[in-house]
Amino acid sequence: MGMMDQEDEEKMGMARLEAARRALRAGVETSRALTRALGRSGTKLEEIQARLPAMEASVRPIRAPRDALEGAGGNIDRAVAPAAAVLKVFDAVHGLEPPLLASSAVADDLPGYLAVMSRLEEALRFLGDNCGLASQWLADIVEYLGERSLADPRFVSDLADALSDLKSPSDCLDGGLLTAALDILEVEFRRLLVEHSAPLAMREPNSSSDPGSITAPRIPASAVHKLGLILDRLAANGRVGACTAAYADARGDTVSASLRALGLDYLQDLAEDAQALSPSVERWGRHLEFTVRHLLEAERKLCVAVFERRPEAVSSCFAEIASRAGILEFLKFGRAVCDARKDPIKLLRLLDVFNSLSKLRMDFNRLFGGKACVEIQTRTRELVKKVVDGSVEIFEELLVQVELQRNMPPPTDGGVPRIVSFVAKYCNQLLADPYRSVLTQVLVIHRSWRKETFNDKMLVDALLNIVKALEANFEAWSKAYEDVTLSYLFMMNTHWHFFKHLKGTKMGEILGDEWLREHEQYKDYYSAVFLRESWGTLAPLLSREGIILFSKGRATARDLVKQRLKSFNANFDEMYQKQSAWIISDRDLQQKTCHLVVQAIVPVYRSFMQNYGPLVDQQDASANKYVKFTAEGLDKMLSTLFLPKPRRAGSFQIKHSNGKITSAMTGLYRSTSTLK
């Protein structure tokens, strides 16, 4: 019984402990909950405390005087209305972004694109005119609220700062939309140019009347119209420079590529020899005329069509295209001709250059007359002056150089000096078109610079003096020969050449028939003297005098025949050997002279041999010493005398006034084959 009571008491004690533990745990949880609740309450209190100033500011207008509040309402309405209009335009600007930034919009519908762009520009003008004013009005009302403490000071301060930024000038009211649209227009401008600026397929022009296959640049009127529309918009936004640069790049490269097909590498040829430049000068003249009158003329018209309302852009753009076309390289080549070594061939080439420039003078003035082409104008004037000065200098030295030739040795073969052929043909060239008029024009210009006059008659007189100075050289040259017979051959050759190459020419007409006949008579005279003093001396060696054919005098006759044949053979061999090195330049004169020589020798020899040849016993071993020729053999030998042989270039030398001597091929006189 007692044990049961003890167990019951223990159970009751454990139950009480368990109840106490639960009560303690419940108390701890309640304490924690209270702690958390207190924590949340503290945060809310802090939030309430933080919001109290704002709440105080919000109720401040309620505490403000009634008349101040009533005045603020009207001011706020007046300031907000313009700002709302500005914001509405801003929204409209943003609405234009999709059509303006679409990649294919400008190519697909340029007028539509430009219309949208016009709306954007109009909106930007409105914003530019009104945004600052609306911002100022808002700033004024903010200042009004601040001064009267009708709003939170911090709010007022922040709003004032924001409005101050809005009042500052800005180029990006559209967020860069206009700039992007203008960039797209520039790209389209370049695309249209590139699409229609492919190099033209060209061929070499044969003459100024054959301009090759080129006509005006192949840009359709529709494309030109589009380029003009784009240019108007870009120019209105200050982008003319970008347009001219793009245009000059496209068209300049096109013209340059087109000209390369003509093969203009020779423009870099800076040879010092005018003769070496001669073929290039002829091409240069054709290509320069072709470039100026066809290519650049067409490009100028195209420039005017595209930049129609902007003449200053036309000039600058065309100047760049002309530069790309190599107009300065053409002028540089002309300068190279001026810098070549001085000789008569150079005078012809300088006159060719002047003639080309003179024909293009009006074209140059029209195309390159603007300020943008000042470098082309300057280079052209410099070239013309060098051409005129160089031409006159050479022309005025011609007479002096001909006179200096008087002391030069004549050809050793008795042929015609190259200077005779050269001067005859050269003077005729200067008297013929186009050189006569061009040289006269050059001399007139040069004399005008010195306040002097010049005319065509003065040119003719100057050339006559050159020819007469050359004529005076003949006698001096003939006296230089040690062999007088050779001097006769030389005079015969030279007078006949002079007569034949001047008869029927401009110079021959000026000199007159009487003057020409004198040279023909001189030829006949020296021909007769030459034959008499040379081959004419052989026939008397075969004289029949003293030869008696009767029986008692046969031995004596044989000795006389042998003696006379021996003398004839010796003299013939000597004369033939010597004159085999001589020449007669004119084929007809050579044949006629040989015929006269044959007639002077062969009939006499044939008759002598027919009559006295039998006296020389052909069985005698010594017969070959006396009978060396047959009549037919002599005929053949004599008929081949005086044939011209190839002559070395530069057989004449040029003596300069300073005493120096140079080769004829690099000095004043050249072979007639060098003349064109």
Indicate the CATH class of the domain at 530-640: Mainly Alpha
Low-confidence stretches: 211-216, 649-676
Query: How does the major sheet shape up?
Result: 2 strands, antiparallel
Radius of gyration: 56 Å
SS content category: mainly alpha
Look at the structure and give the mean pLDDT.
Answer: 79
H and E string? HHHHHHHHHHHHHHHHHHHHHHHHHEE
CATH topology of the domain at 530-640: Monooxygenase
CATH superfamily of the domain at 530-640: Exocyst complex component Exo70
**How many H/I helices?**
25
Q: What is the name of the CATH architecture of the domain at 530-640?
A: Up-down Bundle
What kind of assembly state do the chains in view correspond to?
A: single chain
How large a portion of the residues is in β-strands, by DSSP E?
under 5%
Provide a descriptive summary of the structure in words:
The chain is mainly α and 676 residues long. Among the domains are: 25-63; 66-168, Methane Monooxygenase Hydroxylase, Chain G, domain 1, CATH 1.20.58; 530-640, Monooxygenase. It is built from 25 helices and 2 strands. The chain has a two-stranded antiparallel sheet. A hairpin with a 5-residue loop joins strand 1 (653-655) and strand 2. The chain is elongated and about 215 Å long. Mean pLDDT is 79; it is low at 211-216 and 649-676.
